[in-house]
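Regression test attached.
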Amino acid sequence: MSKTEAGARKGASSRPQKSGPRGRLARSNDRAYFLMAIPALLVYALFYLYPTLTNLRYAFSEWDGLQEAKFIGFKNFTRSLTNDDTFYKVLGNNIEFTGLVVIFQTALSLLFAIFLLKNTRASVALRTLYFFPTILSSVSVAMVWQFLYEPNLGPLNVFLNSIGLDFLALNWLGSETITLRAVAFTQVWFHTGQMMVVYIAGLQQIPQELYEAAEVDGATRWQQFKSVTWPMALPTTAVVMAYTTIQSFRAFDLIYAMTQGGPNNSSSILVTLIYLTAFNEYRFGYAATQSIYLIVFILVLTAIQRRLLRTRY
Amino acid sequence: MIYKVGRAFGLTLFSVLILIPVLVVVLGSFKGDLELMTKPLALPERWSFDNYRNLLEGGQIANNFKNSTIVTLFSVLLTLFISSLASFGIARIIHVSGKVLLLLFTMGLAIPAATSIIGIYQLFVTLNLTNTLHGLVIINVASTLPISIFILSAFFRQIPTEIYESAAMDGAKPFRLYRSVALPLSRPSMGAVAIFLFVITWNDLLYPLLLITRSDLKTLPLALIDYRGEYAINFSMIFTAVMVASIPMVVMYLAMQKSFVSGLTAGAVKG
């Protein structure tokens, strides 16, 4: 927006009584412009905002999705917190899943962005390859990794056995201790290329002179990274971490297709728990309560992330 | 020196990690199941299209493909049309209501779709929109409006006002400004949003899972889940279905890599 336009806008909105011919024209056009937003507004309000709000009402009720919902006050909310081991387990899973994915995806995408920063032919080809998984559906990715992780005949375990690492050949998707991590690995495999592209765009904006100056001072590669790349890339890191966090909360498709949250909820995160509570257990009211907690959780996490990143710069 | 070795090692490792699954699927779709299990990475002993033939004859895959195509095309086109119209309006409104509108739409960005599924399911049952393809189109449009409007309104605000003013001088009305000035200028942004929407709509599992139970109305990702159950551990058939489901995106990616990368990245960063 240009400066003069900003001034004109301010004037038109704060002092409507002073409207000359220009102001009148602007206001009459405002109505036309507002009309243009109406179709989108209607669809969004009716089919997205409204159901999100009704969720709030269901959260205070006991309801199987068929009969009348019965109002029960805050019972669902207190039950989640005081008398529901599964809820705590899944909350813990979600924190572990998000933590693992954010740490590894951010670190790896930064590393590969540094490796492939120069626009050589080989770098561009590898970028294309690394980005490739991004275009696939979570369901397809889940099917492939189910095969790779297959405990008896799957390529991963066959490989581990053949090089003598039998003790590492685990039941990747069938064990309560390892499955969540196996799924997190797939999530990182899935989306690292996309975040690498974000980093490359960020790193290419760092002035080349900074590196030249560092080189003149005899800085090693590691010192250059520590004193130039990392601090200059912090804004990009903030974007990557924020997006990766949201993305990890949305991993419904991948987890549902890969493990359905199993075994015994050990690879479930909040979004899969909500779905299973509603559509496998027919506890719609309780599932609505869980989604309220999820929203609160995300808001808290976003606030923390903002605070942390603001103090950094 | 250490850096060079580390770089070569890291790049090779990640390349292998991506190439292996891709090769296993591509080659596996031309093999029998036993051959896939015993020699997942070897070239097929005989390139056979049996899996593809069985899949076409035995199942609903052609139908699933058609459903995915219909739903994706209509969802993307409708979203593009109403979101560009709204974004243009929002960017041009002088009154504060423009800002309020934008805020209202962008609120939808922070919250994962799965948190609204109970309300959405209930609403769609009430309106008899479950088990219909147009119901799926409606929820796709409603849920992708926030991100589209967020990206497009940012773009429309960057267009210098002088351009609009000179057109308005010639007597162009708001809708005319949208159609003849803003839209032609916004081609690249619209393209990026279109690709982003295309990929997420084509690949989506959540909404079809929520709204569709009739097998003749299932989209490809939802049908894949069924095939997984139906063919049990017959992975060569499952991989053939994965191939069918992925080919449109892969072909488009290879044909227009640059637009794909920038489109999907714009959606990611701004979302």
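Expected vs. actual: identical. The first helix of chain B runs from residue 2 to 28.
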